[in-house]
Amino acid sequence: MVVNGSEARPSAAAQARKSLEDTWVIDPADERGSYDLEVFGPNGFFRSFKGGLAPDRRHGGDAKPEIRVRYDVHMRAITLSARNDGRRSLTLTVTANADRTDGPWRLHLPPGREQEKSWSVRGSGSWYDLTVASTSAGFERRCAGRLETGRDGVSGPAMPPTSSDRRTGVRRRGSRTGRGWPAPRPCGSRPTS
Predict the structure, then answer these.
(1) In Å, what is the CA distance from 156 to each residue of 61, 146, 161?
(2) Cβ distance 161 to 171 under 8 Å?
(3) pTM given for the model
């Protein structure tokens, strides 16, 4: 876990269907109670949480957004549920960081409301990478990983795009920079320099 850019706790592991719980101290000099946490797991699972515990009055801080991501293995899709537990409306912007060329999407959330949006991951080898943010609420979450289906899949999504990807609007990780995985070699051969 990383808190505000510095190592806060050693790594921890949870067994399947178990959970971990922890607490950390927020800098008392920070009136907003700012946090910046990252969680890593298998299959490229990544979550980033940035924001503040106290409302940011400079940006209409009475909005209290939060999100949750669910997998639909049967439909090979992810669903983002966004809610606003605050007293002021807000708009969340969802941006694809990789694997997609469409978006961004905007979710308008009145106080006390929830909204859902789903995306298919069929054309991306079941990979996803989305950032959900609201500058007015000082809120940002990043959700990335691979929906595990039990089927064979692409374990390294940073490959150059295929013609199928171009037709379906899928953008693989790394394809924007032109970097991908090296060409495959026969088993037992050594790389040439």
Answers:
(1) 40, 11, 13
(2) yes
(3) 0.72
